[in-house]
Design goal:
Elements (H helix, E strand, L loop, with lengths): L12 E2 L4 H9 L3 E2 L2 H24 L10 H11 L4
Parallel strand pairs: 1-2
Length: 83
């Protein structure tokens, strides 16, 4: 059973220097991306993930009881199971 990638909603990219592999994959409708382009894209994705995680961490719930920064850090470590 032959499968075509042209009907898919998301486009498939391939990063390989193997000519035979490229021809097989391209025949199924995939596109080529260079190893350098893939590396740049992965770094950008990692930066976006790190940025989003930082934003979420900064929006953490604040206690209604005023705690010193030191006590808040101790409680946070306990909450995370750290000592």
């Amino acid at each position: 059973m032959a499968t075509s990638l042209s009907n898919r909603r998301d486009q498939i990219y391939v990063a390989t220097s193997d000519q035979t592999e490229q021809r097989v994959i391209f025949g199924k409708g995939a596109l080529r991306i260079s190893a350098r382009e893939l590396e740049i894209e992965m770094e950008e994705i990692q930066r976006n993930i790190s940025k989003k995680v930082k934003e979420i961490q900064e929006q953490r719930a604040f206690s209604k009881i005023h705690l010193s920064e030191e006590v808040a850090e101790i409680f946070e470590k306990w909450r995370r199971g750290l000592k």
